[in-house]
C-alpha cells in the first residue's frame, strides 16, 4: 500500500520543499492567509482596531448581560414581594372564609331553631283556633237543640191546655187569678 502523502505529492497538491511557486489550492492557503493577515493587523494596529472592536463588543455584550441580570434580579425580587403579598392576602381571605363558614353554620342553626319554634307556635295557635271553633259550634248546636225542645214543649203544653180548657174552666181560672191579685193588693 502506498502512503497517503505519496498520493498527494504525486497528484501535485503538495509542492516539493525545495521549490518556490504559487499554491492555487484555496482550501490549503485560506487558513494560512487569514493567520498572516490577522498577525499583520495585530502587529501594526497594535491591537487598536481589532482588539478594540472585539473588546468593545465584548464589553457591550458584558454590560448588556449584566444589565439583563440586574433587571432579572429586580423583577425576581418584585415578583417575590408580590408573591408574599398574595400569600398574605390568601391567608387573610382563608381566615375570613373560615370565620364566615363558622358564623354561617351557627347562623343556619339559629335560623333553623327559630323556624322550628315559629312553626311550633303557629301549630299551637291553629290548634287553639280549632278547639275554639269546635267549642263554639258545640254551643251553637246545643242552643239550637234547646230552642227546638223548648218550642216543642211549649207547643205540646199549649195543645194540652187548649184541649183541656173549656170556657167555664177558663173563666174560673181568670177569676181565681183576679182574686189572688186583689188579695195581693190588700196585703200591700
From TrEMBL:
<keyword id="KW-0472">Membrane</keyword>
<comment type="subunit">
    <text>F-type ATPases have 2 components, F(1) - the catalytic core - and F(0) - the membrane proton channel. F(1) has five subunits: alpha(3), beta(3), gamma(1), delta(1), epsilon(1). F(0) has four main subunits: a(1), b(1), b'(1) and c(10-14). The alpha and beta chains form an alternating ring which encloses part of the gamma chain. F(1) is attached to F(0) by a central stalk formed by the gamma and epsilon chains, while a peripheral stalk is formed by the delta, b and b' chains.</text>
</comment>
<comment type="function">
    <text>F(1)F(0) ATP synthase produces ATP from ADP in the presence of a proton or sodium gradient. F-type ATPases consist of two structural domains, F(1) containing the extramembraneous catalytic core and F(0) containing the membrane proton channel, linked together by a central stalk and a peripheral stalk. During catalysis, ATP synthesis in the catalytic domain of F(1) is coupled via a rotary mechanism of the central stalk subunits to proton translocation.</text>
</comment>
<keyword id="KW-0138">CF(0)</keyword>
<comment type="similarity">
    <text>Belongs to the ATPase B chain family.</text>
</comment>
<keyword id="KW-0934">Plastid</keyword>
<keyword id="KW-0150">Chloroplast</keyword>
<keyword id="KW-0813">Transport</keyword>
<dbReference type="Pfam" id="PF00430">
    <property type="entry name" value="ATP-synt_B"/>
</dbReference>
<dbReference type="GO" id="GO:0046933">
    <property type="term" value="F:proton-transporting ATP synthase activity, rotational mechanism"/>
</dbReference>
<protein>
    <recommendedName>
        <fullName>ATP synthase subunit b, chloroplastic</fullName>
    </recommendedName>
</protein>
<dbReference type="GO" id="GO:0009535">
    <property type="term" value="C:chloroplast thylakoid membrane"/>
</dbReference>
<keyword id="KW-0812">Transmembrane</keyword>
<keyword id="KW-0793">Thylakoid</keyword>
<keyword id="KW-0066">ATP synthesis</keyword>
<dbReference type="GO" id="GO:0045259">
    <property type="term" value="C:proton-transporting ATP synthase complex"/>
</dbReference>
<keyword id="KW-0375">Hydrogen ion transport</keyword>
<comment type="function">
    <text>Component of the F(0) channel, it forms part of the peripheral stalk, linking F(1) to F(0).</text>
</comment>
<keyword id="KW-1133">Transmembrane helix</keyword>
<keyword id="KW-0175">Coiled coil</keyword>
<feature type="transmembrane region" description="Helical">
    <location>
        <begin position="32"/>
        <end position="54"/>
    </location>
</feature>
<keyword id="KW-0406">Ion transport</keyword>
<feature type="coiled-coil region">
    <location>
        <begin position="69"/>
        <end position="103"/>
    </location>
</feature>
<dbReference type="InterPro" id="IPR002146">
    <property type="entry name" value="ATP_synth_b/b'su_bac/chlpt"/>
</dbReference>
Amino acid at each position: 500500500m502506498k502512503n497517503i502523502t505519496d498520493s498527494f505529492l504525486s497528484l501535485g497538491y503538495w509542492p516539493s520543499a525545495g521549490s518556490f511557486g504559487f499554491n492555487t489550492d484555496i482550501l490549503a492557503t485560506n487558513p494560512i492567509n487569514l493567520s498572516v493577515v490577522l498577525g499583520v493587523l495585530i502587529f501594526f494596529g497594535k491591537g487598536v482596531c481589532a482588539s478594540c472592536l472585539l473588546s468593545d463588543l465584548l464589553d457591550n455584550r458584558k454590560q448588556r448581560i449584566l444589565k439583563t441580570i440586574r433587571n432579572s434580579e429586580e423583577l425576581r425580587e418584585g415578583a417575590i414581594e408580590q408573591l408574599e403579598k398574595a400569600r398574605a392576602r390568601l391567608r387573610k381571605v382563608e381566615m375570613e372564609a373560615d370565620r364566615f363558614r363558622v358564623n354561617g353554620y351557627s347562623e343556619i342553626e339559629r335560623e333553623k331553631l327559630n323556624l322550628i319554634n315559629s312553626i311550633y307556635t303557629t301549630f299551637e295557635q291553629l290548634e287553639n283556633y280549632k278547639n275554639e271553633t269546635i267549642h263554639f259550634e258545640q254551643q251553637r248546636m246545643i242552643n239550637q237543640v234547646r230552642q227546638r225542645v223548648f218550642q216543642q214543649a211549649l207547643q205540646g203544653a199549649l195543645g194540652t191546655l187548649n184541649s183541656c180548657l173549656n170556657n167555664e174552666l177558663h173563666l174560673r181560672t181568670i177569676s181565681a187569678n183576679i182574686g189572688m191579685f186583689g188579695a195581693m193588693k190588700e196585703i200591700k
